[in-house]
Design brief:
By secondary structure, the chain is of the alpha+beta class. Helix content is about 35%, strand content about 20%. The chain is built from 16 helices and 21 strands.
């Protein structure tokens, strides 16, 4: 019988449990019918909030595993893998129970101003030189995504009730395994880890006002876990299964798409969007201004940029397009709840020609993500509208805005890769997988062909491949009939290059206005 792994995908829009198996040919495939899913919706009751209840999330994960057990899908599973959203944080009290909501990457209520004053000058001010040195060591710039901002903010709100802090994956480990150990991959997303040495960075801890005893233990390279007693009895098929270190969902997506080493970049368009490339560790290159660096495992890092706008921006634009909005989202335009993204029918005809007839969207609807120059959520703009334009032009412009940002991130990656050679681009995610138009427009913006894997569940597949001992040899097998090659439309390349130039100019003009800061100094793909 083929070796089987249960992959747990701890995402922000859903939690999933999927069984994969590896056969003798080196392929890692999802077992037919062995998928369980529960949708998740972020709580947003105040500006900047994007949270989950940790125990509710855990209950949904348990329900997924229960469902697979009920269908007999856990038979033969010997390994358990997991990927998780990076940057989440929850505070635990002395009894080990949560005393805060679980903050996700999208929660922007914390700011560096919450740093412990002892870390810098009076008022918590820290020099730019010191921040840049910290960014090069940890791979993370100052910003609300990271624990250097989240933890002081939580501590301030909780007034001493906190004993320690965990991320979502560590909370799951605490409850199911009795072991909250944190992998180097998940630790690198906190902004507290020195990524070359795989240890907590003392200066980052100082900024966060933390001591190591308030953090989960770092899992060593050989770490493996097992279910705690009550869960072994609930899921006897998993009683002897080995649990592997959790990896960040972005890193897992690269592995599952075959982008598990230098020379390839993965462009993913899901709810948000990202561009990432895996490199050998330690990475000797200085980290460019617009990029972050996290760990895949002890031997590899992933370098890239992420953007808050992706599929959710497309969904918003579709809701404005008369006729398509109601058909695609299943409700009248404007009727969607803020915390529930509508279902999107990506497979539509091209709404407008390349360049969107001069309409431009500034994709600040959900703000920007570190290390991009900061813009708060709720500042999205549409410019260039005339009486002859329709919602179709806005849909097209929204897609182009996402593509322009990804192109900027890819430029940064290629400049910082230590090589002048172009990276091969592998594109995936809901929008890419389900829309010919999206794929073609992205290829035309980049001016190069895309490799688009047709295998499903690439993120969970990446985590499962590591647990099954696949490594680069297996995950890199994506090819042949498992990938479609999408070429740019020759006539659109020059049009979109000009549109991107004009869009960037407008972006730079408007960013300081909506951010309330000084002159724009950076490209959309770069940090401050």
């Amino acid at each position: 019988m083929a070796k089987r792994a249960l992959a747990l995908d701890l995402g922000s829009s859903s939690v999933r449990a999927i069984v994969f198996e590896a056969d003798g040919s080196g392929a890692v495939e999802a077992v037919e019918g062995a998928l369980a899913r529960r949708p998740r919706h972020l709580l947003a009751q105040e500006p900047g909030q994007a949270t989950f209840d940790a125990d509710d999330y855990l209950a949904d994960l348990v329900a997924c595993i229960d469902e697979l057990q009920g269908r007999g899908c856990l038979d033969g599973v010997t390994e358990v893998a997991a990927d998780s959203q990076w940057h989440s944080a929850v505070a635990l009290g002395p009894d080990g129970a949560p005393v805060s909501e679980l903050l996700t990457w999208a929660d922007t209520r914390s700011q560096p101003r919450h740093w412990a004053c002892s870390a810098g000058a009076p008022g918590g001010e820290v020099s730019q030189e010191r921040l840049e040195q910290l960014r090069q060591r940890t791979g993370c710039a100052a910003g609300p995504m990271y624990w250097t901002s989240k933890v002081p903010w939580l501590a301030e709100r909780l007034s001493g009730r906190t004993r320690r802090y965990l991320g979502l994956s560590e909370y799951v480990g605490l409850k199911l395994l009795g072991d909250p150990s944190m992998s180097v991959s998940m630790a690198s997303g906190t902004g507290l880890l020195a990524t070359a040495e795989h240890r907590w960075d003392p200066e980052a801890l100082e900024l966060a006002g933390l001591e190591e005893r308030g953090l989960p233990p770092l899992a060593p390279r050989e770490w493996r876990g097992r279910l705690a007693g009550q869960w072994r009895r609930r899921w006897p098929e998993l009683a002897s299964a080995l649990w592997h270190p959790v990896i960040g969902d972005g890193a897992a997506a690269n592995l599952g798409a075959g982008c598990d080493g230098p020379g390839r970049a993965a462009l993913t368009v899901g709810t948000s969007a990202a561009v990432r490339s895996v490199r050998h560790a330690p990475d000797p290159e200085a980290l460019p201004a617009g990029l972050w660096r996290y760990c895949v495992d002890h031997d590899r890092v992933v370098v890239g940029a992420a953007y808050s706008s992706g599929g959710q921006l497309y969904s918003w634009a579709l809701s404005l397009w008369e006729g398509v909005g109601s058909a695609a989202t299943g409700h009248r335009s404007g009727a969607a709840r803020a915390d529930v993204p509508p279902a999107v029918d990506y497979d539509i005809d091209e709404p407008a020609p390349a360049g969107s007839r001069g309409v431009m969207v500034m994709p600040w609807h959900a703000g920007t993500r570190t290390p991009a120059a900061p813009v708060p959520a709720g500042q999205g703009c549409v410019t260039g509208l005339g009486l002859g334009h329709t919602g179709a032009d806005i849909v097209s412009a929204a897609v182009e805005a996402v593509c322009f940002q990804l192109a900027g991130g890819l430029d940064d990656l290629e400049r910082g890769a230590g090589s002048r050679a172009r990276l091969a681009v592998v594109a995936n995610g809901g929008a890419i997988d389900r829309s010919r138009w999206w794929r073609t427009r992205l290829a035309s913006v980049l001016g190069r062909s895309l490799l688009c894997p047709t295998v499903p569940e690439t993120t969970a597949r990446g985590a499962a491949s590591l647990a099954l001992g696949a490594g680069p040899a297996m995950t890199g097998r994506v090819g042949g009939d498992q990938v479609r090659v999408v070429a740019p439309v020759a006539a659109d390349v020059a049009v979109l290059a000009d549109a991107r130039r004009r869009w960037q100019q407008r972006y730079d003009e408007l960013r300081p206005v909506v951010a309330g800061s000084g002159p724009a100094r950076v490209r959309a793909g770069q940090g401050p």
